[in-house]
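ARCHIVE CARD
Drawer: 12
Card no.: 0347
Subject: one protein chain, sequence and derived structure
Cross-reference: see card 0346
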Amino acid sequence: MIELLVAAVLAVSAIILILLLQISGKLGKTTIDPEAVKGAVATSWKELGVDQDIGAIKEKATDIQAAAQDLQTLFKVTRGRGEYGEFQLEQILNDLLPKQYVHIREKIAQTGKIPDAHIITPNGIVCIDSKFPLDNYREMLKATDDVQKQSYGISFCKDVEGHIAKIKNDYVKPEEGTTPFAFGFIPSEAVYQFLTECHPNIIADAAKEGVLVVSPATLAINLNLLTVGLRATEIAENAQQIQNNIIKLSKSLNEVEEAWNTLYSHIQKAYNKASEVNDKHSRLRTNFERITERKEET
């Protein structure tokens, strides 16, 4: 493809050169060899370094073609596409939620299922599935015939409806500890837009069944709301813990006050007893001194 482009540019350059010579009157009846002109233009390009630029463009084009092929392979292989969706989902969850709430491909003890991800919340376990069937959607985009395109679109919608039913049966189980809803994650804004614009009834019916179909952007919005709820729960739990600690401190303070009152009572009694003993001691000493004085006088 790049070689054809270069050849076309050289040919156009030769034609332009011939036209310029005709205009200037220098061509006349002289016969010009196109190959010679082509060689002269190529030499000029080489001297100016244009051929190096074309080589760089060719190399970049090859890299882009290889990357496009890799991306096409990624979405062509079901397992690879699923892993891509799981990776994207994991990145979004880790970016938006505290790690202690996020679990990636872990078995849920209550249900025995292993969703692509689940989130532990005070109101239950939120399950997320990221393996959406996109084969017929890809074929729909490739189809050039309107009838085939419509046929692939109908098949894609049936695939989506079947997958939504699977998500509901596997991950919407409030009686087993999940929330009344689960997320069906589509790792493509284009696919999500196609469903919401062309088949909004599928999205609405899924929501009624407890399956919220989301794209990367809409999942982020929902997770932000969930984060607010989790933080509010943490604050409430911390407030409750603080209140419990205050209650414990209050009990300890009451015990200290009771002990102090008992000690103070004993101290007060001891003080009173000490005053009484001191008075008796004073009277005894006075009497003793009087007796001593009388004995000395006699």
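Annotation on reverse: The first helix runs from residue 2 to 24. Strands lie at 102-104, 117-121, 124-129, 182-185, 211-214.
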